[in-house]
Every structure is written in structure tokens, then in C-alpha cells.
Amino acid sequence: GAGPGVIAPSAGVDIERDVKTAREQSLLGNYEASLERYEAVLGVTPEALVATLPNSERRATADRLERFQKQLREEVQLLRRITAEWADLGDFGAGAAAAGGGGSARAANEAPGKKDMLDD
User: Fold this and answer.
1) Where is the Katanin p60 ATPase-containing subunit A1 MIT domain (predicted)?
2) Mean residue pLDDT across the chain
3) pLDDT (0 to 100) of residue 2
4) Where are the domains of the chain?
5) N- to C-terminal Cα separation, the chain
């Protein structure tokens, strides 16, 4: 079986691979994909993961898993905050131009006569 400290796959979830993928996706800005992986990992209970371990290892492993899941929940909260910040920014760049603006009203009010930063 899995050695000490190794989290065995459970219910079709490969914990190590899925956490790595979640973190990679968040670094790439693929926040929705990242959240899906985090949710899959957090959906597996520590009890389900330790059920196959010998009784002597279950408590310590369950405690480690609970601390690990707490850390993952904190990462998910940060990811949700980042996602909310992005949503609050609205469209910008090519997305804003395609939406018919090309720039924010605030920028136009702050710098009349300037089209962008390159007009200095």
C-alpha cells in the first residue's frame, strides 16, 4: 500500500495530482479549473482516506489530513478573493475594446486628450 505520509487515491480522486493541478491552474489564471480541482480534493473526507490504513496509523494520518484540508480551504478562500477582485475590475484591454469602450470613463476624465499611456 501507500507508505507513511502518502495519501492514497480515494473515490476517483488522486489527491496529490489534483492539488498540484489546482495550484498550477491558479498560477496560470485558470481560476475556475483550479477551484474545481480543489473542490474535488476537499470533497473526500479524511475518514474515507484513512479507512484502508492499519488502525495504528489512522488517527495521526487523519490529523495530518485535517490540517492539510484546512490549508486547502484557506487557498480556496484566497482564490475566491482573487476571482472576486478580477470580477470587480470589469472588462479591460481587448475585452473592453470589443465591448465598445476601449477605455474606462474614469481614465478619460483623469487624462483629457490622452488616449493611452503611450501618448506622453
Assistant:
1) 16-80
2) 80
3) 42
4) 1-89, 91-120
5) 65
Residue 27 has a CB neighbour count (10 Å cut-off) of 9
pTM of the model: 0.64
Rg (CA), the chain: 22
- Which amino acid, 26? S
* Confidence at residue 91, expressed as pLDDT on a 0 to 100 scale: 80
Q: 3-class DSSP state for residue 113?
A: coil
Q: Are 21 and 37 a contacting pair, CB within 8 Å?
A: yes
CA distance linking residue 1 with residue 86, whole number of Å: 43
Q: Is 10 helix (H, G, I), strand (E, B) or coil?
A: strand
Query: Is residue 32 scored above 50 in pLDDT?
Result: yes
Instruction: Answer with the residue of higher pLDDT: 52 or 100.
Output: 52
User: Hey, what amino acid is at 64?
Assistant: R
Q: Which CATH architecture has domain 1-89?
A: Up-down Bundle (1.20)
CA separation for the pair 74, 90 (Å, rounded): 25
